[in-house]
Design brief:
Elements: H1 7-23, H2 30-34, E1 40-47, H3 51-59, H4 61-67, E2 71-78, H5 81-89, E3 95-99, H6 102-108, E4 113-119, E5 126-130, E6 146-149, H7 154-165, E7 174-177, H8 180-188, E8 194-198, H9 201-209, E9 212-216, E10 225-230, H10 231-236, H11 238-257, H12 259-270, H13 274-281, E11 288-289, H14 293-308
Parallel strand pairs: 1-2, 1-3, 6-7, 6-8
Antiparallel strand pairs: 3-10, 4-10, 4-11, 5-8, 5-9
């Protein structure tokens, strides 16, 4: 996601990115979602790697619950969190699930959303990988090296944090901005020295091509995941948002009690082997909580760092992106 210091440029970038996403089939159904509907429609953005929402969609329990209220559910798939939040920014989706960094970039670009809930920390679900025969064995050795990652995604914050741990300044490595599929291709052909990636892509690379974990997020980042709502939608439809969160919570409970079955169901959808998916599922918590001051403070740390590194054009307050009455601890 490109960040601009100009509102005009930001809007132009948003529209350009959405056009590219549509052209690349990363997001399907945009024209249909934008059309007026006779009945109320809840438009949910999701990523194929977001297993809880993928299974919620597959099981159809949310549709059944909301149908009684005359609400239709429409699903739109995105390649990653930044693209999903671009769509939320221009009003194409009402609700979505992304990681910790995309909301920071989106808020700085003017997206009007609110944090609705978060997943408890899952730092083992992302890491920097190196090829199995790479001579790199420590974070300090990444100085000057090429690291592939999706710009503005969770792993962007992971890279910043791990480089700092390794004593490397942000301007002392070569960022290669690539989406997961393109990053893996570059990684396999040796075009990059490392790859920062999340599950299930992380586990797939480890199991399929013997990629080696140089460092995970453990002890360095929280790797929270967030449910976000368009502010206007949340203000007018809090009961619907609550229903989605309740159903997602139930789905998370089911996953934790049925990892193997969940993996088997996800395999044909995510295009990965069940054992890869099962391992990846266990790296996530699937436990969701109301947004509180502590998690917003962690988000603020990311926001402040991104601003200092000129990755976002202005300072932001993460507490501006929450409905006052919904802050769990009210502090």
């Amino acid at each position: 996601m490109t960040v601009s210091t100009s509102n005009k440029h930001t809007r132009r970038q948003v529209l350009a990115l959405l056009s590219a996403v549509v052209a690349g089939a990363a997001f399907t159904g945009l024209p249909q979602l934008a059309q007026a509907q006779d009945k109320q429609v809840l438009r949910i953005g999701y990523q194929k790697a977001a297993s809880t929402l993928v299974l919620l969609k597959a099981h159809g329990t949310l549709e059944k619950r909301l149908a009684a209220q005359g609400i239709e559910v429409k699903w739109a798939e995105f390649a990653a969190g930044p693209q999903l939040l671009e769509a939320l920014n221009v009003g194409s989706v009402d609700f979505g699930y992304v990681g910790e960094a995309p909301p920071i970039v989106a808020q700085a670009a003017g997206a009007d959303f609110v944090y609705s809930a978060y997943e408890i920390p899952t730092p083992e679900a992302e890491s920097i990988l190196v090829p199995k025969n790479s001579p790199i064995t420590s974070l300090a050795q990444l100085k000057g090296k090429k690291i592939a990652f999706n710009k503005g995604s969770d792993v962007h914050w992971l890279v910043i944090s791990l480089l700092k741990k390794g004593g490397i300044a942000y301007n002392e490595f070569q960022p290669i901005y690539l989406a997961p599929a393109d990053a893996r291709a570059a990684f396999e052909r040796g075009a990059v020295d490392g790859w920062a990636i999340w599950d299930p892509f992380q586990t797939a690379a480890i199991k399929q091509i013997d990629a080696r974990v140089l460092a995970s997020g453990s002890g360095v980042v929280s790797h929270h995941q967030f449910f976000l709502s368009a502010r206007k939608y949340a203000e007018k439809n809090q009961a619907v948002v609550n229903a989605v969160l309740e159903e997602a919570g139930k789905e998370g409970q089911w996953i934790r009690a049925n990892y193997k079955e969940a993996a088997a169901q996800l395999a044909p959808i995510q295009g990965l082997e069940p054992d890869v998916i099962e391992t990846g599922l266990k790296h996530y918590a699937h436990i969701y909580k109301p947004v509180d001051s502590k998690v917003l403070d962690e988000q603020q740390k990311i926001a402040d760092t991104f601003y200092e590194l000129k990755l976002i054009p202005k300072k932001i307050s993460t507490r501006d992106a929450v409905l006052p009455a919904k802050l769990a601890d009210k502090s």
